[in-house]
């Protein structure tokens, strides 16, 4: 009799998981073919992707980069044998080569292209301390404060004394406020500061700046707003309108949340009115009515009028975003501020606003994306934004009949900008979530 | 014992208006009000002065004068001799039509995309992400002109349907024609129309209004009856625990009365046919309507998809698991547990998307769809030169539409809102 | 720095202060009266001229952003007469919707934008038409393959029209008068109308005959399209100014007349210098300022007409250069010939 019993004395080595569960196959089984329904969906999706790509790719890859007109494009395409049922088939990229600079800068004088480029690069620098607060030194905030005066000077040019003088108004107002506050009280300080600043701007500003400009003629050559166009125009309208709507939006949001009935109803009325009408009607107001509302003889040029209306438009949406930020703040913050004995404005300035604005940044970014996309509407009232320019280019007899290339290129430009910004805003949202 | 003394009576001083919190709010409000009134007065006086300088007098008299231009898509009767006011109404109806169509389609597409984005199928989820990002990050105006160009350039024109060997042919047994000028689909025509005249041709997307009114009235009654049946079933289920089978009754109530009305009115399909320059007969949906409708719904659906996705994700996993633990099947989990809760998160942003879509429909002007912006604030403005009156009136109308939509939606929102105790 | 440059800087400065939030600054500093346009233009050193956003041959920016065209040339002539610099013009592109507002509000000093002279525009909208620089009429263009030879056969057709013009009113009237129905397709710009017409989204394209010719000229196969013989309306196109400022209206009117008269008298940009020395013909002398004081009467100097003609040539030269038979537009003079050649151009006497 032999003992046939078997006792395993050592563990079996771990076996590789079956081939169907790991690697590419496993991943596919898990994610693409986990059931009959999913398998059908996968097959359909693959077919769909193939269908779309097979339609677009051959069209996209087209050796027409150097063509000088649509006719040349067609000749090139016929020469390489890319012929569909309706004649030559393929994109005509010559129009992009010839006009892409125009699509970015409009009619801005070419020797000054560095100015808008620098303005927008510096914009990133000025925004950095706000957007990436943890990664850049806080000192940069001083640059952010200077930037609003730098931006229009770079774009529109002119004597440097203009923006300096305008900024001086704030400085003078601030010093008057400080000195009066020390001697009398803060309210008198605010009033005195505001009045001196207003006097500076309304009375002293133009004679002094023009005197200085004659004395020391420092400045950049002026560029008329009519020469603005293309992507630069869209960005300018978007940036200026959002920048100016921020303070307006804060005031409106506070007004809407306040207990003061008249103030509240004025703010609600304004916000709901602006949000209730389409932007295009506001642009009609800009293009046809704004000059009628102003004192006789006033004449803003159309881009300025559009910026004014876009600012009002954005400020209503901004107010709602900031109101959301205020509402999201825990009640304890308000109570904490009260218990420290801070008054309303101190509490807003030191406790509420810094936090509420931080929470609102993603909302502000998406408001900006929305406004930036909406700037294409200015083409309807005759401004030459990328879409307006595409019409002008199509009116050129060389490019008569071009459709897809221009629209595609413009769409791509907008996509890159907006997608980038929305990604940033999502990153920010994630970061803020961990903070709370 | 200490006796309470009255607080020292202060006489009123002017500075109290500012420092005393009892008066300060009043002061601020009055200052704000005065400032506002001054601003309004300033604007009005400027406007009046400018109008005097231009020699124009604001008046709405032009609204009753003949418009002089034709509108292609008209839901009510209109010709070039009708008044500017009627032209504005035609435009308003066109706005409402495209807004209603757009909202419905955007919701359907948006929900499908939003749910598919959560799909476990990697490829499907990716495609849907691309869809959403593609539509969200490119301006709507660009989509509108782009889709218009696609419709015009890629679809065959009526001339291609002509001849012995036409380059294009109608679909679905010669009942539908997709052309670059628009889509022609069969229309339901009532041969026994209650409006005796019958002969008068109503060139519109929806015609024969009285007949349709009857149909819709009957449909409404049927739906009301179905709800009664359902409620009765609920009662029985609560009382006995058994739910009577009622689906055939519901189906019958829905179909039979409407069917009878259709037969009585002599409903029959009218097919489009090539006649002269164009197709005639049937419903003609113009390319401008198609482009606008499609662009509005695709663009908005990308936003709706995101709203739906975040709404579903906002319902915590515990809810689903708890429902599964109660033995509910996945479909019922979705219907009874997840969706009702998700809806509360979804509805408010959805309302603002509907509002946006309605306002965005004003971009119709880019493709020549004759909505309110195209008629009142477009051709009427051009022909009469009354910028102030037309633009103000147009804004007012849009404001009313917006306020009405948000009122209706807020009412609904309040109904489904969680009542906190 | 030229005076224009300084002015531009002033203007820019003003704009900036507005951007910086001091709205009222600009409001106060720009409070000049709108009445004396001539003085305003002289003080500004620049003429603001409203043109269309792009109509080939009449006004369109070229690749360098410089405006070219027949309407543009009128603006340049006025600028030359008033400011001695044909380039001292700021062109303001206007759409059908914004053109009248731009003029009425003072944004532009004159409008040279294919605008039809009608009673209601002249009287009700308070403008002053200063003459006609192009006699036009509305026509129809159809593809040859349609086999249509008269506009009377167009019943049931789909018609592309450019909105914001008198065209859509004429069209409605014409079809109504002939008891035909049609399907209007309103379109904002000529480029889009062209695209839709070529794609076949409409059977007929209707606009001013000059525009039709220009459009047809740009087609790949121009021979496949015909312009129907019917001209259904009168479209006298001309520059206009605000009502009530007669001095300025006179300047624009007589600048245009000077261009027309110069052709009639045989003055062109080649022989202008020679003629300006003085000739046997007293009317030529009066026009060119060597005799009499016509320029002074207008509030200009005596050389005004010389400069206007020098800016681009006389009416005939401008026509040939921008829209004439040698250009891609290829328009014949037709109604726009001198009255001596059987046309309608008839400049009143210079005396």
UniProtKB/TrEMBL annotation, chain A:
<keyword id="KW-0472">Membrane</keyword>
<feature type="domain" description="ABC transmembrane type-1">
    <location>
        <begin position="231"/>
        <end position="425"/>
    </location>
</feature>
<keyword id="KW-1133">Transmembrane helix</keyword>
<feature type="transmembrane region" description="Helical">
    <location>
        <begin position="36"/>
        <end position="61"/>
    </location>
</feature>
<keyword id="KW-1003">Cell membrane</keyword>
<dbReference type="InterPro" id="IPR043429">
    <property type="entry name" value="ArtM/GltK/GlnP/TcyL/YhdX-like"/>
</dbReference>
<dbReference type="GO" id="GO:0022857">
    <property type="term" value="F:transmembrane transporter activity"/>
</dbReference>
<dbReference type="GO" id="GO:0043190">
    <property type="term" value="C:ATP-binding cassette (ABC) transporter complex"/>
</dbReference>
<dbReference type="InterPro" id="IPR035906">
    <property type="entry name" value="MetI-like_sf"/>
</dbReference>
<feature type="transmembrane region" description="Helical">
    <location>
        <begin position="228"/>
        <end position="254"/>
    </location>
</feature>
<feature type="transmembrane region" description="Helical">
    <location>
        <begin position="266"/>
        <end position="290"/>
    </location>
</feature>
<feature type="transmembrane region" description="Helical">
    <location>
        <begin position="184"/>
        <end position="208"/>
    </location>
</feature>
<keyword id="KW-0812">Transmembrane</keyword>
<keyword id="KW-0813">Transport</keyword>
<dbReference type="GO" id="GO:0006865">
    <property type="term" value="P:amino acid transport"/>
</dbReference>
UniProtKB/TrEMBL annotation, chain B:
<feature type="transmembrane region" description="Helical">
    <location>
        <begin position="204"/>
        <end position="226"/>
    </location>
</feature>
<feature type="transmembrane region" description="Helical">
    <location>
        <begin position="363"/>
        <end position="381"/>
    </location>
</feature>
<feature type="transmembrane region" description="Helical">
    <location>
        <begin position="247"/>
        <end position="269"/>
    </location>
</feature>
<dbReference type="GO" id="GO:0022857">
    <property type="term" value="F:transmembrane transporter activity"/>
</dbReference>
<keyword id="KW-0813">Transport</keyword>
<feature type="transmembrane region" description="Helical">
    <location>
        <begin position="23"/>
        <end position="44"/>
    </location>
</feature>
<feature type="transmembrane region" description="Helical">
    <location>
        <begin position="289"/>
        <end position="312"/>
    </location>
</feature>
<feature type="transmembrane region" description="Helical">
    <location>
        <begin position="137"/>
        <end position="155"/>
    </location>
</feature>
<comment type="similarity">
    <text>Belongs to the binding-protein-dependent transport system permease family. HisMQ subfamily.</text>
</comment>
<keyword id="KW-0472">Membrane</keyword>
<keyword id="KW-1133">Transmembrane helix</keyword>
<dbReference type="InterPro" id="IPR010065">
    <property type="entry name" value="AA_ABC_transptr_permease_3TM"/>
</dbReference>
<keyword id="KW-0029">Amino-acid transport</keyword>
<keyword id="KW-1003">Cell membrane</keyword>
<dbReference type="GO" id="GO:0043190">
    <property type="term" value="C:ATP-binding cassette (ABC) transporter complex"/>
</dbReference>
From TrEMBL, chain C:
<comment type="similarity">
    <text>Belongs to the bacterial solute-binding protein 3 family.</text>
</comment>
<dbReference type="InterPro" id="IPR001638">
    <property type="entry name" value="Solute-binding_3/MltF_N"/>
</dbReference>
<dbReference type="InterPro" id="IPR051455">
    <property type="entry name" value="Bact_solute-bind_prot3"/>
</dbReference>
<keyword id="KW-0813">Transport</keyword>
<protein>
    <submittedName>
        <fullName>L-glutamine-binding protein /L-glutamate-binding protein /L-aspartate-binding protein /L-asparagine-binding protein</fullName>
    </submittedName>
</protein>
<keyword id="KW-0732">Signal</keyword>
<dbReference type="GO" id="GO:0006865">
    <property type="term" value="P:amino acid transport"/>
</dbReference>
<feature type="domain" description="Solute-binding protein family 3/N-terminal">
    <location>
        <begin position="46"/>
        <end position="275"/>
    </location>
</feature>
<dbReference type="Pfam" id="PF00497">
    <property type="entry name" value="SBP_bac_3"/>
</dbReference>
